[in-house]
Write a structure and sequence with these properties.
The protein has two domains: 21-87, Fe,Mn superoxide dismutase (SOD) domain (Helix Hairpins); 99-202, minor pseudopilin epsh fold. The chain has eight helices and three strands; from the N terminus they run αααααβββααα. It has helices at 21-45, 54-59, 66-87, 99-109, 112-124, 171-174, 178-185, 191-201, and strands spanning 130-136, 141-147, 159-164. Strands 2-1-3 form a three-stranded antiparallel β-sheet, with helices on both faces. The model has no long low-confidence stretch (mean pLDDT 97). The protein binds manganese (II) ion.
Length: 203
Amino acid sequence: MAFEVPPLPYDYAALEPHIDKETMHLHHDKHHQAYVNNLNAAVEKHPDLGKHSAEDLLRNLNAVPEDVRTTVRNNGGGHVNHSMFWNIMKPGGGGDPTGIIAAQIRKDFGTSDDFKKQFNETTAKQFGSGWGWLIWDGSKLKIITTANQDSPLSQGYYPILGNDVWEHAYYLKYQNRRPDYLAAWWNTVNWDEINKRFEQAKK
Ligand code: MN
């Protein structure tokens, strides 16, 4: 198989109480796996696609054959977005930003709380399923949202961090209370990994 779900880098219960164990099982083992299965089915039809990384396919969707373009957009996006998501969280994460991203957040948003508030407000308003993102536009950090599994890579931006606001990410524990999930999620974030992604975004 061309693409595989990466193993979760910590235990399924490790992000409790902020994200519950059952949600992590369903989200990683079922939802992410389904995106990968669908992506692989598209690659079976067009084996040349398997020579590229999923990130590169998303960066250049117009080069993907039209009959599988929407499948790659949705499921390649699902694969890449979730692969990032598991890695930007960790047990005992959270706290204020550290490293080079901390200085840039201060410059572009003010305090850490100002930044989180703006991210949460923007992302809470995403209608239906989608993601909230922090991206680097070449001169400053920006908060954007995308619908479905659309990746900022397809808009030319490397996502520094993203939070999943599909109901499958939070409904078991938070039901309809998306803002509560968004607030709690910051207790899981892995600022070391986010700093690595910021370095990558600036390249
Ligand atoms: Mn998800």
